[in-house]
Structures are given as C-alpha cells and as structure tokens.
Write a sequence for this structure.
C-alpha cells in the first residue's frame, strides 16, 4: 500500500480550474509539512506550494493568487485548488510529505498525476 496517494489532475483549457488531493497514510508520524511539486518535460522538479504544521503556506511566485493549498482537519490530507490555469502550469504534479526524525528529514513521494492545460 502506497504511503502517499494523489487524486485529481487531467486536461483543461487555459483559464480553467482543477483540484488535486493528496492523502498520507495514517501510519506516518512526525509529519513536518506536505506540499506539491511539478515537473515538466526537460525541466527539474520544482516546488509549487507547501503547508507546514502551523498551516503556513508558501507558493512559487508564478502561482501566487491563482493556486491555494489547504490541509484537512485530520492533518493527513492536503488539497491544491488551481484556478486560471495556464499552459505553463502543465506537468506531472507530485505530492510530497516531509517527516522529521531525530537526525534528519525524510521525503515521501506520491506516484504523480498529470496536469495538462491546453491553449
């Protein structure tokens, strides 16, 4: 059973909206933050948005004002509401869970979900 599961994504026209969801397995403890990364063909994976245990959200400049990250009350689920989508938002979106141990931070990744925005 995967520890990080994503749902959502798909094909949408420019200006449209999509919602992504991510659920971490409840056996995961000491979660420090959860977030979304994306990777377009030929590009490096980049952080899109993240939210920490204090519900502080951070965004890459290119999505500010258009994307909103939120965390569920059970603290194991996050969602990314993406509005006014642009073709440059296309890529594979990966959910990331960071767990803190005594000595370091461990990254857990979902399998990725495709987002395609047509012009």
């Amino acid at each position: 059973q995967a520890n990080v599961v994503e749902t959502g994504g798909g094909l949408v026209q420019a200006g449209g909206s999509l919602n992504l969801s991510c659920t971490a397995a409840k056996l995961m403890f000491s979660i420090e933050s959860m977030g979304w990364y994306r990777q377009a063909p030929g590009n490096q994976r980049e952080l899109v948005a993240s939210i920490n245990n204090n519900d502080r959200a951070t965004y890459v400049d290119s999505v500010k004002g258009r994307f909103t990250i939120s965390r569920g009350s059970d603290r194991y689920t996050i969602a990314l509401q993406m509005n006014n989508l642009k073709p440059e938002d296309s890529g594979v979106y990966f959910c990331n869970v960071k767990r803190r141990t005594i000595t370091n931070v461990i990254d857990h990744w979902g399998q990725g979900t495709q987002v395609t925005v047509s012009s």
Q: What stands out?
A: The chain is about 0% helix and 55% strand.
